[in-house]
């Protein structure tokens, strides 16, 4: 769990967002996490790790993650399916060339989504 945003959601925010902020703010100080995970601005310690065999498979995973979180992106432009498809296609091209891919999106406060796929070479 990431630390709560320093400011609560603005008045008029969705009730579920306000409730989630309250839960995060109440739970965070008591959580048993290493210090570096508590630092303001650090990435969310929840993560998904795995080994994907092909660039297309990794780009597909990235697309799945974007689809899950897109409804929570802060802007309509970021939620646009054409924009998301371009991100996935670009990621596939970069991964195929051996480059890494790192994306980040602000979600409804108090969250930030960071996605990364790292290319690793195999040696035998």
Output the number of helix runs. 5
User: What is the percentage of strand-forming residues?
Assistant: 5-15%
Q: What do the pLDDT scores average to?
A: 77
Query: What is the strand tally?
Result: 2
Judging from the principal axes of the Cα atoms, what is the shape? elongated
Rg value: 17 Å
Outline the low-pLDDT stretches. 33-47
Widest sheet: strand ordering: 1-2
Which class best fits the helix and strand makeup? mainly alpha
Main sheet properties: 2 strands, antiparallel
Characterization of this structure:
By secondary structure, the protein is mainly alpha-helical. It has five helices and two strands, in the order αααααββ. It has helices at residues 15-27, 35-38, 55-69, 76-79, 81-96; strands at 101-106, 112-117. A two-stranded antiparallel ribbon has the order 1-2. A hairpin with a 5-residue loop joins strand 1 and strand 2.
Summed up, what is this model?
The chain is mainly alpha-helical and 124 residues long. It has helices spanning 15-27, 35-38, 55-69, 76-79, 81-96; strands spanning 101-106, 112-117.
Please give a handful of descriptors for the protein shown:
42% helix, two-stranded antiparallel sheet, 124 residues, mainly alpha, elongated
């Amino acid at each position: 769990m990431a630390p709560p945003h320093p400011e609560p959601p603005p008045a008029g925010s969705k009730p579920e967002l306000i409730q989630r902020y309250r839960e995060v703010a109440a739970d965070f100080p008591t959580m048993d996490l290493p210090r570096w995970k508590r630092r303001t601005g650090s990435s969310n310690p929840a993560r998904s790790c795995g080994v994907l065999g092909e660039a297309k498979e990794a780009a597909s995973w990235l697309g799945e993650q974007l689809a899950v979180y897109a409804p929570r992106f802060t802007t309509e432009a970021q939620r646009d399916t054409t924009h998301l498809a371009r991100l996935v296609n670009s990621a596939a091209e970069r991964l195929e060339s051996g480059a890494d891919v790192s994306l980040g999106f602000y979600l409804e406060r108090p969250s930030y989504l960071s996605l990364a796929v790292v290319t690793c070479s195999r040696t035998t």
